[in-house]
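Most newcomers find our protein records easier to grasp once they have seen one. A learned vocabulary of local backbone shapes supplies the integers on the structure line. Here is such a record, shown just as it appears in the course material:
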Amino acid sequence: MNTRLTTITTIAAVLCCAAAAVAGLPAASHDEQTSAALGVTKETTFAKLSSLCVDKAGRVLACDERSKSIRVFDAEGKPAATWPLSVAPSAMCACPESGAVYVGTTGAVVKLDAEGKEVARLTADDQPLPKRGRVTAIAVSGKDVFISYCYIPGNSVRGMVYRMTADLAEPTMIAKGYRGCCGNLDIDARDGKVYVAENAGHRIVVIDRNGKLIERWGKRDRTGKNGFGSCCNPMGVCVGADGSVYTAEDGPNQIKRFNIEGDLQDFVGPVGKKITGAKAMKRSCSNGQVAVNADGSRVYVLDEANNIVRVLVGPATVQPEDETEADVAQAAS
């Protein structure tokens, strides 16, 4: 190699290292598998993708708002079923214990069994739910079902969280006043705690089942590892089986994994093409939900702009319950 080429290579390496240092993020733990994306083939295409989740069997469920249906894919991404709905779904969650699926829309929540049959319904006509706005996210913890609701009065966005029973009875508003940009306010729940992605506040807010504040962390920071970039992030939040908190940022297009205190555990990886520039970042504001399979080896990201589900694949982060540390050590030897 000649001296000039060596110098150029060295400079390029230094600049790459400097950029990584500015970003403040470690190497990605997962890689995006473009061939595994849902929505890019004729068999998996969506009319309008609006929400996604992973059920107890490891299947990926994706809401198609325009066709009023839920598309079901197996763990390998192959189409398994299509469930027709009576509503245009804007949000969805699968109960990790019972397998029941909850679907939200404007002014209503619907409960389905594990095969997509409607078994209960809650509407704003006979219950204390807002008639304006829509359900933006649903989460389940134990016997509680939580929904986030956003509506836009004037130029502001107001988000609130409701709690109800597994049969959609006794809806009670437990928290309000959240700022959800573009009408998006994602939530997840685990062990009696609700995790709110207050994107316009650039933070995660953790509350108990009655709405009492437990923890909040995050800040607007385009370079720091514990901050969130663009105009309004994180857009998506998901709690893994081990209690890890996954966040999805729209614009920077990246997934991170935190502990409950807000300390970065992993930079899961970038998704799609990173967007730069203030105007482009602002235009990129959209739904960016994230879902994780049971062992953390597959991470699914809703790309609303391109109407697809992106898939990141990496090592498992959750040890099976029946596998001891000794088993893991023996397998590695």
Remarks:
- Residues 30-320 form a domain with the Neuraminidase fold (CATH 2.120.10.30).
- Confidence is low (pLDDT under 50) at residues 1-22, 275-283, 322-333.
